[in-house]
Known about the structure:
This protein is globular. Strands 1-2 form a two-stranded antiparallel sheet. It is mainly α.
Amino acid sequence: MINPTYIVIMATAIALCSLLVRRSQQKLPLTREEKFGLGLGGFCGAMIGAKLPFVLYDLEGLWNGVAWFAHGKTIVCGLAGGYLGVEIAKWLMNIRIKTGDSFAAPVAFAIAIGRWGCFFGGCCFGTPTTLPWGVAFPTAVDDPLVLRHPTQIYESLFHLTMGFLLLWLERKGWFRGQLMKLYILVYLSYRFLTEMIRPEPRYLVGLTAYQWGAILLAIIFVWLWRRDAAALAAENAQKEPRPADAAAD
């Protein structure tokens, strides 16, 4: 049974993200339809990416469609899916300008809110702890009375901090065109480390599936960073006046 509080919080997070993205994209030279297309691509990509690992794990549910509506989502693949969704939308609409910076902070603030939905929904909790802020989750099947790390709150605070940091970096003009990739890479590092206090199954060399996913996605986004940095450097080099031109002036 779906917790109504979870639904309200998630709807609030999506609405806030839409409003913040709309505001952050005001200066982009795009039409209203193009901005809507980018937002739709990001949303669909994020939703599909967040569910895809669980759907592929349940092949029977994949074929009958049940897995798409069952419990289970991952922010790790949701962020990557959202990024891919925007890129596909840009390709379909032949948009060549950088748009990732306009999504970075809004997405971070939205996830910061959305993680409270996970907290009140009783999912995504951590391992047992003796720390004074440990929380007993009734949804814990093994022992609902044991105090556990409220990893949802930890993650909410992380994304909230990242949201303000991304806003500050954008105003400073630092990492221009790379803010979304920076956000995803920092989150992948955070998630890799905090898997140590999450009750997830361990696989090859003692790492969880999320940790292996974080490693794979980090490699991809480092490559994307380097590719975009090289393209920007080449573009700037073309804009610089040649020595002969400077002498003529």
